[in-house]
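Page 47, continued from p. 46.
Same chain as before, 571 aa.
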Amino acid sequence: MSTLADGREAYAERRWPDAVGQYTAAEQDAELPAGDLERLSTSVILTGRGSEGVDILARAHLKYLADGDYAAAVRCAVWTGINLILLGEPARSAGWLARAHRIVEDLSEPCRFEGMLFLPAGLGALYQGEGAAAAEAFTRAADLGRERGDADTAALGMLGLGQAKIMLGQLDDGRALLDEAMVAVTVGEVSPVPAGIIYCAVVETCHLAFDLHRAHEWTRALDRWCDAQQNLVAFSGQCQKHRAELYRLHGAWTEAIDAAKMAQDLAFRGDRMATYGGFYEQGEIHRLRGDFDAAEAAYLHAQETGFPPQPGLALLRLAQGRPDQAQSMVRLTMDGAAPDYRRRMLAARVEIELAAGDAPAARAAMEELASLCASFDMPMLHALAEQSEAAVLFHEGDPKAALVPLRRAWSRWLGLDAPFEAACCRALLASLCAALGDEESARLEREAARAVFSELGAVPALSELERSALESSAVESSAPEQLAPAAPDARTALLPTSENDVGHAAGTGSLTARETEVVRLVSAGLSNRDIATELFISEKTVARHVSNIFTKLGLTSRAAATAYAYRHGLV
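Result:
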């Protein structure tokens, strides 16, 4: 009996391997009660042994039936079905879900867990891109969960409804529902498996909605949640995938590769939902660094999960000098994509269509991207839309008009601490300045972009920059009389025009939004390594931010920075 008690204690303390060991030992002496079988199955699933956990969950279901606890039997049947979906066994899943429906129909009283029956239908509609149908199913699940005191179903229903609303473009309503679902998780109302599902789904949805701030906040929360549980495998791989995505955006490409490889390792150990993201993110870094063979291999591994590795694979074809193939790939993928995934491919579509020579298609994609900004008021989305607009205008022969949206895009990328994207803006600005006859500004912008690309190891971007420079030189030497006069504002085209552009304008003695975050963390006593982990940036980037802070504020130590933070109400 003490072994059984030890198993229950380990489960309560989220020591999953200990719980598995103690419950397994207890089962050698006597048959486990249904509730303990269910807890054992959860512990086994969370340590990465999904198939074994499902078999134990099926035993718990039968034990509940024998005990006459039909509501709990329904719960086990539905979770068995959901886990089988995740394991890629739809036929067995359908059988278990049908069994759950039949039990509920045969009951003479309302079933506490009836709301769970609507979750699989909502998931199916969501995966098919049918937002309205998904919203209907998840609303029913959430309502029944609340009415009958089933916190897990209520929270999962809110999560799904939030995802559906964001898919339908109702961003504010969707985000509010995601936040409400996360409240249920953070106050401990939700059991471990639904909590992990909600964490990972919220982060993924934030990325799809271009909500970088929330994606960062919830990824860090998921990171802490995973770290707090002994040898947790389930959901840990997905956490690493999300970390890789943030590291990539912030220019910490080595850290991004490490996180992507860890996601793959955890996927092989049981977190199968991390497989696609782990390989896709690895492919992205290899592509950006110019290691095309490794990128191809990673993208193809991602594709084996059944999801197209786009737009990364299409952009790889473009980098390989095959724009027609890239165009065909991205068009085919977008034609069948759900609205939220289609949105994520629009900026790449603009780039690819321009390279393939279809200016009208590029403009159509750019205008679709720009139209989203009214519903999704997110800095990252605005940056993508403005950068795409500048590229289209330049391609159409209006470099002067392209300066304004490009300056805004550059400013937003700086505010998001996205060095590669910001450098791409400066590379394009160099071409604009050259087209306007301002070769000195073009040279300065080219040098600034080259410095960032070199530090990141972005070999293809460097090669493209040099090619553009040679083309500009050739045009200047062959037909100087045709050049337009230098634009009066070309030399200062990318300087911030207000403090809102990058948090605060650089060079004024004030801090940018990112530098303010760093000061807060320094004042909390965090080391550069800890700050890098907290913000998903590299230690080198943290050191550069700290140096800039000291220079701007005239400080010489972290203690002085801490004093400044307290004095100015930053803490």
